[in-house]
Structures are given as structure tokens and as C-alpha cells.
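Hello Y.,

Per our agreement to keep a running log of every chain we model this quarter, I'm adding this entry. I've kept the format consistent with earlier entries: sequence first, then predicted structure.
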Amino acid sequence: MSDTSDGPAESTALLTRDTPSPAPPEPEPEPGRRRAGGPLALPLGLIRTARPRQWVKNVLVIAAPAAAGELFTWHAASQLALVFALFTACASAVYLINDARDAEADRAHPVKRHRPVAAGQVPVPVAYAVGAALAVLAPAVAAVLCTPMTSALLTAYVAMQLAYCLSLKHVLVVDLAVVTAGFVMRAMIGGIALGIPLSRWFLITTGFGALFMVSAKRYSEAVQMAGRAGATRALLTEYTTGYLRFVWQLAAGVAVLGYCLWALEGGAAGGALLPWRQLSMVAFTLAVLRYAVFADRGTAGEPEDVVLHDRALACIGLLWLAMYGLAVVNL
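Predicted structure for the entry above:
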């Protein structure tokens, strides 16, 4: 009888016993529990949460001083730099508190779950603490280094934006008004910090221009998410595209009208070669019409991308800026 103790089955069994089986892969930690390594992880996460890409909006703080021709002095430049930093701090405070509040909901979102707070790179208590500190410190610094009105405006901005995050973003029409008011506050604060009176035409043009951009953005989002609006802003399900189109068309018309009335209010400057103030109406109107092309297509969901990536719009904007600058210099 042959011995089969050293046959293939026995050898396989021995190899199986001698060779350790590979360890099963570790399960991926839950999004809210992940921690990025390195000493800079937390500071970088806080900066990302503060939305650096959105800081460009705060350049609007120079709008009123530029309109008044009081931009190029050391006092104006230093005050505007400070106001820019303080407004950026207030906006960042709102982003931090908003992301901390929405952390659980963001973890269930395919894109927002990668935000630093939702991903666990920035702990929720830290986001709340840093946001609250910025919200308190920025107006306090403004009260000491700027004017009480500047501090009051920053406080009002933070309160309004927090109310928006908590409830107002779910209220029809009010959500558009709050976002628009945020842009108007940016445009006002530079003039308030420098004690520059704000003209009615400046406020009308700025306010309705901001409403044009905001409602065009909402319209584009509604068009792009038609049939699946629940995947984006919940309030889009309450608006109709026809209503949002009406709002941005109305706002564009009033903004152009306000600007034209400002331009026609004063005659040509005596020392000017051409009536730059009146001529700037053409460039301003063309810029609005060009932007309206993207709004009508439903591709104005990211206004900064439209402004920066469309060469024709950029050229028209530079032409308007040059004409407007010449009009202000020759006031």
C-alpha cells in the first residue's frame, strides 16, 4: 500500500499553516472622525473653511471711496486695508459657524463632506470657537481703529448672516434680499469708514446691481438643477425659473437706469477732453447686457468665473473702469 502522507493535499495544508494570511484592510474611518496629520493640518483647515476664494468680494469696500475720488491718499489706503481685513474676518466667522452647525448634514453630501469641518480636519468646537472669536473681535477692533458706525455695520452684517444661516435662507424672497444686502454693506463700509457721504445713485446702482447678480445666480442654479432641485439649495424648489428671470431682468434694468441718471446728473467736466461720465454709460450697459447672456443661458451660477473667464466681458469692464476713473478724476 502506498503512503500518501506527503501528497499534494498534505503539502498545501502545511503551506497554509506556515504562511500567515493577509490582514483584512482597515475600514475607512467615518468622515467626521478623520484627522489629517501634520502640525499645519488644523490651521490650513481653518483657512479653507474661511473660503479664501470668496475674499475677492470684499474688494467692494473701495467702491464708495473710488466713486468719490478719495482713494489715493495714505489715510484712505490704510483705512481701506484695515476695513478689508475686518470684513474678511467677519465673513470668515460666518463660514466657520455655518460649517460647524451643518457638519452632520454635510457629511451626507457627496461634495460638502470634504469640507474640513465635516471631514474632521477641524473639530466642530474649534470651528465654533474661532468663528465666535472673529465675530466679536472684528467689530471691537473697528470701534477702536475706525469709527463706531463701521463697527455697527460689521455687527449688523454678522447678525444678519447668522440669521440667514439659521433660518432666513429658507424664506422666499428674503433670502435674495439678505444676500444682496451683504454686497451693499461691503460697498457702503469703505465710505462709512472714511466719512464719505453715500449718494442715492450709488446706493440704487449698487443695490440693484447686486440683486441682478444674486438672482441671476439663483436662476442659473434652478436651470441647471431642473428636475433634481433637491440635490442643491432646498429653496430652489419653491422658486420658478420664470420668477427668478423676472427678478434679474427687473434688477438689471433698475441698475442701468440708476447709473444713467447719475451720469446725466452732471454735465461734462470743464477740463475733460470728452464727456467721460456720460460715455461710461455705454460701457456699463454693455457689461450688464454681456453678463445677461450668461444669466439667460443659465451659466451664471459662479459669477466670479463668468467675470474672470469671459474675455469680452473683461475688456468691457476695463473700458468702463477707465472711463469711470476719468470721470471721477475730472469731477
